[in-house]
């Protein structure tokens, strides 16, 4: 991707190594009149929550592409409010040259009631990519039914180098298996539900960690959250929330669980909460 830009004569602005600084970032956007950005939701959140976003001119931005993880709706709305209609979502992975589906600028909206808001969607299949939702037995599912996102097309790799076993598993039935669970709506939009391995099974019920995280994230004291399944003597598994609070905010685990019970089916609510600073990689 970098070389394509160079071939077309488009300058690249690269941040130097070290701690990520939103003010340095916005200063560079203003100085170099940056028009296109590619980043991850955690970095977008840091950029639009930092006060420097209002002190630098970023009107040159045409596209801010975000990928790599689901973006919480509250973060998406703030980004749209601060930056305007420049947000573009990619959904994919390395095996498909980065993109299975995309959600262009016009498929975003600040207002939850706007039909273009497409809350929870990861967009529509990219050009040249055939996407379908299958169950475990490779039966193609109807719109609205939860199954695995599978795809095929010229952008999909042919397999894993020197690993025929992994290739056979990932390309069962002639389709590449993403490992992600989703539903496809009648209009072709794909709504991501969870990673297959991240589904929490409690008392025979499937719980989406993303759904629980989205609810917890709406609490005004919560900065970040991650939900996982932990062993439970009675139910097999139960949700546990790891939470980072906003600066100068206080919240108990009991209060957060009660908040969840007001906004979720009770069986989906965390049974325990741990307040920590969530670890991150250098890219967020």
UniProtKB/TrEMBL annotation:
Record flagged with keyword Ligase: yes
Signal peptide segment: none
One term of GO molecular function: ligase activity
Annotated AMP-binding enzyme C-terminal domain residues: 211-284
A biological process term (GO) from this entry: fatty acid metabolic process
One Pfam family matching this protein: AMP-binding
Keyword annotations from UniProtKB, A to Z: Fatty acid metabolism, Ligase, Lipid metabolism
Domain AMP-dependent synthetase/ligase span(s) in chain numbering: 2-161
PANTHER family: ACYL-ACTIVATING ENZYME (PTHR43859), BUTANOATE--COA LIGASE AAE1-RELATED (PTHR43859:SF4)
UniProt similarity note: Belongs to the ATP-dependent AMP-binding enzyme family.
Name listed for the protein in its UniProt record: AMP-dependent synthetase/ligase domain-containing protein
């Amino acid at each position: 991707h970098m070389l394509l830009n160079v071939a077309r004569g488009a300058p690249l602005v690269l941040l130097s190594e070290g701690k990520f600084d939103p003010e340095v970032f916005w200063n560079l956007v203003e100085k170099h009149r940056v028009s296109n950005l590619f980043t991850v939701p955690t970095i977008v959140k840091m950029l639009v929550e930092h006060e420097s976003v209002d002190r630098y001119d970023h009107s040159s931005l045409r596209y801010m592409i975000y990928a790599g993880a689901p973006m919480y709706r509250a973060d998406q709305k703030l980004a749209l409010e601060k930056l305007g209609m420049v947000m573009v979502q990619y959904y994919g992975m390395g095996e498909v040259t980065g993109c299975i589906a995309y959600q262009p600028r016009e498929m975003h909206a600040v207002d939850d009631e706007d039909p273009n808001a497409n809350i929870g969607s990861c967009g529509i299949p990219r050009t040249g990519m055939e996407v379908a939702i299958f169950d475990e037995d490779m039966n193609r599912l109807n719109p609205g039914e939860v199954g695995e996102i599978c795809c095929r097309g010229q952008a999909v790799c042919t397999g894993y180098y020197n690993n025929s076993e992994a290739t056979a598993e990932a390309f069962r039935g002639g389709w590449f298996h993403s490992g992600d669970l989703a539903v496809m709506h009648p209009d072709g939009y794909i709504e991501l539900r969870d990673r297959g391995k991240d589904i929490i099974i409690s008392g025979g019920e499937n719980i989406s960690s993303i759904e629980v995280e989205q609810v917890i994230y709406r609490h005004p004291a919560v900065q970040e959250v991650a939900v996982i399944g932990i062993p439970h003597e009675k139910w097999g598994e139960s949700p546990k929330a790891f939470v980072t609070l906003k600066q100068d905010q206080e919240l108990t685990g009991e209060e957060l669980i009660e908040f969840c019970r007001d906004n979720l089916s009770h069986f989906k609510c965390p049974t325990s909460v741990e307040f920590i600073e969530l670890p991150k990689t250098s890219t967020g």
